[in-house]
Amino acid sequence: MSKQQELDGLIKSIAAAGEKLPGPERRLFLKQGLTMLGAAGAASGAAGIGAAEAALPPGVPSWTKSLGTGVVTNPYGEPSPFEAHIKRRNLEWLTADKIASISFTPLADLKGIITPNGLVFERYHAGLPAVDPGLHRLMIHGMVDRPIVLSMDDLMRFPSISMTRFLECAANGGMEWRGAQMDRLQLTHGMLACCEWTGVLLSTLLQEVGVQKGAAWILAEGADGSHMSRSIPMDKALDDALIVYAQNGEPLRPEQGYPVRLINPGWEGNTCVKWLRRLKIGDKPWYHREETSKYTDLMPDGSSREFTFVQECNSVITNPCPENPLKGPGKFWVEGLAWSGRGKIKQVDVSFDGGVSWRTTRFTSAVLPRALTRFGVEWDWNGAQALLQSRAIDETGYVQPTYGQLRAVRGTSSIYHKNAIHTWKVNNNGSVANVQIS
Amino acid sequence: MSKQQELDGLIKSIAAAGEKLPGPERRLFLKQGLTMLGAAGAASGAAGIGAAEAALPPGVPSWTKSLGTGVVTNPYGEPSPFEAHIKRRNLEWLTADKIASISFTPLADLKGIITPNGLVFERYHAGLPAVDPGLHRLMIHGMVDRPIVLSMDDLMRFPSISMTRFLECAANGGMEWRGAQMDRLQLTHGMLACCEWTGVLLSTLLQEVGVQKGAAWILAEGADGSHMSRSIPMDKALDDALIVYAQNGEPLRPEQGYPVRLINPGWEGNTCVKWLRRLKIGDKPWYHREETSKYTDLMPDGSSREFTFVQECNSVITNPCPENPLKGPGKFWVEGLAWSGRGKIKQVDVSFDGGVSWRTTRFTSAVLPRALTRFGVEWDWNGAQALLQSRAIDETGYVQPTYGQLRAVRGTSSIYHKNAIHTWKVNNNGSVANVQIS
């Protein structure tokens, strides 16, 4: 009921905002960019067709005069060939090799909050393993009364649940800590995705095995060649940690941990162990390789923060951006994504003058906890240079920091957990550059 | 906030239900289907590893001892080869040819509520056209003050919104009206999908063109060879009709109307005109071919009901089903999908005895208006024959009818709008058959 009201409200707010605009301002959409028919077309509905033809590309397109192809030409469909540029990309220099590396989600080309499975960023510690689901097993043992080994068939018999949640690498944007300025949104923020994950709550499985008194941590270990492993506090396991076998409706993709992975909603991606083969329950963390030599935050005083699991509140404008320049002055729909590992997004403000003044945006997607949230605002661009920023606030009241605020605490030696307010500089010619404002 | 509470409630209800189960009953999961470690394994956490190895397939899998493949091996990823059976299927005999035909969504293999783009059912009236987005135009004319012709770039400048909504062919399940019993869930209910759709509210565009007094209907026309067209009442256009250019985050798929289509949430799929090229505003419906010779409901007295747009409340059990037989007695997670073109699903009950007694299920996904909703309930199967049914109730109070109730009003000559309670017969050997109970 409340969700219905929420969406009704969204729809009404958009309609209402439109109504408030005076005619001439609204018609800027037409004047600046759209092909408006002349007075002849407006005079009568019937005359409209003829007038409109003048605005059409010459000739009647072939596809309106012929039969197309039949059903199940692609039993598993693919994107239009006109959209072949929308793909995951990597950076050759970022890691020593392509086996233990990362690829980036093409955020500039995506809409809404769901990331299609074929475009979810990749992160491997020993490459993508080809796991046979019939041979794969998940063992749960340690401080439990009834240790078990589960086949995938076994796992499917437990109650399941589906949640739409973001997934983000702790290193998302990490290249910018020391001032590097990547020239694509895909590279500045693309270690990020959001899917509907389906599986069994870890709490359900813990109930099955019977957790013993004193148990406080869980080791999650992957079946890949790196045996990627992380220590997870029991509180998270009993909250919303999910043993996942499906994403966006279908079985997990190989690069996302097929046939089964852990998802800790809102936590750094490396804790969401893929190709999950083992959960060991214990009374303290294991301090394995990936939580000591990696995935700790180097502070200005030389110490390292450990177990910084939560991906704090963050946001970015996805249109315009370097991949989506502005095509001449006029009205545009400026939009972006906000997310917080602590819950729902409460508000997103946008600045067009580098943070001097701010306008509150509208939400244009479902607003779910620990999920990407889409925001948007109309902007009438006069053709002058502009500095675009977004600033998100989550339901805990946390406000996304500036680079200055973030570096005052964290210094510049970190790799992980960069969530500073990001700036796009719009040039006079409509091109967009990545700049840093502290 | 309310959505957070809703999901928290979901999670807690699952946990709570588990807690209430006495130990022995809960452990049926183990006794019947799972591989429980012996007392030695249970005695100590450390001993668990050795004991568990006995339950593992022989040998250490190759993928745990080697490096896998690198990033962007597939810049646009694909499903695991182990899941190649999950695909759209068609019925050769259903239509005169494959050009103007339909394919079905593999519902038995899907989880959650999102249908991945590659598996959304297809319906063509003149085949799948290859539309060039750079040449495509959308014209809005008729009883308007400012007729316009929009390029895709133009359309992208308007405020956008994203909504997760189901899409269903009016003929979904139509083969069963006269008693045919298809042997797959994919064929009984697979003209159904649910996506996050992104685009511009039709009401936003109508405001742009200025609708004239007396306007009451809108003709939507496609650019394919059939020039598929339907008359849409103005009320729907001003409510939630959406001009869509993206599905599940990425550009519309070719078979879903690339580059732009109409979505009338909750209404029969054929009104959601694909490859949309024209919207004409008028004062009465056009009575085009697809709303006279097709897409009307033949009633028992020989008359035809016209403009029956809404897809009424419906549901089906997706596990078990003919494609998902039961593997021996024991506990199972029985789940399915419910949906209503009038709003949210309020309740879904499941019967295991052909409708004599009912159990209320839990929702295990987000509950959104005019979207698929996932329900589930635990079932301890004793190995005896059983008749499984699901019965959905929507927020208007409408209760999904039995075949008897539906046929009393509609007869058996219809093709469209079949939403009767569906029955799966579970045989002693765990196989599942489609039967009809009136």
The Cα radius of gyration of chain A reads: 25 Å
Mean pLDDT of chain A: 89
CATH class of the largest domain in chain A: Alpha Beta
Integer count of domains of chain A: 2
Low-confidence stretches of chain A: 6-28, 30-54
What's the multimeric state?
homodimer
Largest sheet of chain A: 5 strands, mixed
Question: Which structural class matches the secondary elements of chain A?
Answer: alpha+beta
Can you name the CATH architecture of the largest domain in chain A? Alpha-Beta Complex
Q: What is the β-strand count of chain A?
A: 24
Distance between the termini of chain A: 43 Å
Enumerate the strands of the largest sheet of chain A in spatial order, edge to edge or round the barrel: 5-4-13-8-9
| CATH topology (fold) name of the largest domain in chain A | Sulfite Oxidase, Chain A, domain 2
Number of alpha- plus pi-helical segments of chain A: 10
Tell the overall outline of chain A: globular
Beta-strand proportion of chain A: 25-35%
In which range does the helix fraction of chain A lie? 10-25%
In CATH, the homologous superfamily of the largest domain in chain A goes by the name Oxidoreductase, molybdopterin-binding domain
Which pair has the most extensive contact?
Answer: A-B, 162 and 161 residues
Q: Can you walk me through this structure?
A:
Two copies of one chain form a homodimer. By secondary structure, chain A is an alpha+beta fold. Chain A has two domains: 96-183 and 193-305, Oxidoreductase, molybdopterin-binding domain (Sulfite Oxidase, Chain A, domain 2, Alpha-Beta Complex), CATH 3.90.420; 314-435, Immunoglobulin-like. Helix content of chain A is 17%, strand content 27%. In chain A, a hairpin with a 7-residue loop joins strand 18 and strand 19 (359-360). The interface between A and B is large, with 162 and 161 residues. Strand 1 of chain A pairs antiparallel with strand 5 of chain B.
